[in-house]
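Running log. JK asked me to keep both predictions on one page so they can be read side by side. First protein, sequence followed by its tokens:
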Amino acid sequence: MDATLHLLDNLLNWSMAQIRNEGMKPKVFALDDLVEECLTLLLNDAERKELMFQNHLTTRCFVRADVDMTRLILRNLIGNAIKFTPSGGCISIANRREGAFWEIAVADTGVGIPKADWDKVLGIGVRSTLGTDRERGTGLGLRLCKDFVEMNGGKLSFTSELKTGSVFRFTLPAVAKEAHLPITSVQDEAEDASVAAG
């Protein structure tokens, strides 16, 4: 998993530099396409641990947000699910409309989080822990994910049960169907990010 983690670290550094230099760049894009991209990127890591991906995206979902920040949120949440789910487990991704927002839920059958630690999970300075196969952390914490989500007008939350698994959910502002165009090409954004990170 080292190559993927290295890529995530590079993308984080690139994204933070972009935000500092240019500020946020909210655009209209298909969130479900971005989910598919992230699942594809992390599929090999999941297969190495014999984990099953279940894609429960039921409909197109268009949002207005910063594409790079959203990409990092998704990669971190899915990456954490892989990291903390034992071999043979399952990770599922689902979407649903919540009023003026689209919600993405990343669920796993992992080790779970003790309730006593819930308040610490999204805190500042929480140190990364080793995964079920002693995977290292990416350096991109859940607190940063929370900040990114909130900067884009959404919310990040989670529920978890020890030895059963966790579900992390985040929302982003939905865009009405008639306002879809112009739509940012997620593929083009990904290529730009890869070039900059490399």
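And the second, directly underneath as requested:
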Amino acid sequence: MTSVPSELYQHNYNQFSSTSMKNLDNTEEIISNKTQRELGIIEKLCSTYGFVYCCHRDGRYFFHFSEYKNDITQAKIGDVVEFEIIIDKRKQKPVAINIIPVSSEIIGENRVEGTIAVVARQQLLNNGFDEINFIPDGKVTYVKKGETYFLPYDITDLQDSSISIKVGDQVTFNVGQDRRTNQFFARNIELIKNINSPIATIKRYRGVISTMKDSFGFIEREDALKEIFFHITEFGPNIATNIIQPGVEVEFDIQDRHNKEVAINIVILPKGTVQFDEIDKTPYIGRILQTLQNKPKKSNETLTGRLLYDTIDNKMSELSFGERDRCGLYTLLENDIVQFVIAKDKRDGMMRATQISLLDQSFLKSKEHREMSITICDEENNLQRPDRLITKLKSINFDENKRQKLIIVRQPRNADEKSKGFTSIRIERAPGVLIKNQQ
């Protein structure tokens, strides 16, 4: 809830306020006034006249400088003013008179106790006057008469900006209302209890960024078998956006927004900190039963491959595996002989094969046709390849210090009716020489 009870306010506001909060709640008294004061913003200033835009109704009114009750030379575009509206007898058009500059915000005197819900990171840019529609990214929450309220705040609302505040910190503040938009804010925030005290502790969560799109993404949680949404601004202003990529390990808090959990106060962790699995280091030998599927039947199905292996008690057992469980980017085919270890997911206890490597026995037993060649790198003159291979080969980086062989595997018959030619690629170390053209 974002509305604020009127009892939070005192009724003695600054001298420019023409109507008290009590009168704002009394519609009959407003209607009975012969001349109602309007709130507006100076929109344009010319040589001897200007225009004001009404904040609470769709209207733009002409005014003469003689109607401005303060020093007109001090007036500027964007200033908040109060004025009356009359009909010009000559032109029969409404004009603004009795114009008085006023404060754009009303701040109550009562101090309210609350809790930091979202730490403010964005600061209002001062470009001459306040932006009317600017809503700070910080949030303070408090409870009044059984109802929970959320008020926005920015960095400048902290009484002591040198003190670092965190989600869950207890604070006191004044409630302010922007008279132009009727939006409420938390002002003059003072810290009274830090979450680092023994009384208040908040659990931190860890995970790995799984997907990114534009300015938001999802984190795969370490404690639960599900993902959580995050916005890139939760990393803070000191983190370069190009660092925030899938695979990055993070620590974060969880907040409920609109009945959905989101990750906040995100911190990047060293690689290897987050562990989803308990890995048995014992190596096993197995045979591929089902290859990885490019388009699984279910969108959330990631472990589409299956292999068969001998257990310790000489029983045949099956394990699933996914795209990230291979040690290399080579294609695994049916009946390939592989070596692997067994991983157990700490979240749900599910077993799978991981660290899968292709063994030489696969090529000894397989009848697939293989081609071997020496790779030559020429930086200036690119070698002409057959048209049928140029769009099928993947981009591969070879290490000049390692001897490698490239094996191109022909597409199995009826594996994919729409695909023909050479699609499967395997790379493994083998005796040979990598030649580079010296300039």
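Observation for JK regarding the second prediction: The domain at 277-365 is CATH 2.40.50.140 (OB fold (Dihydrolipoamide Acetyltransferase, E2P)).
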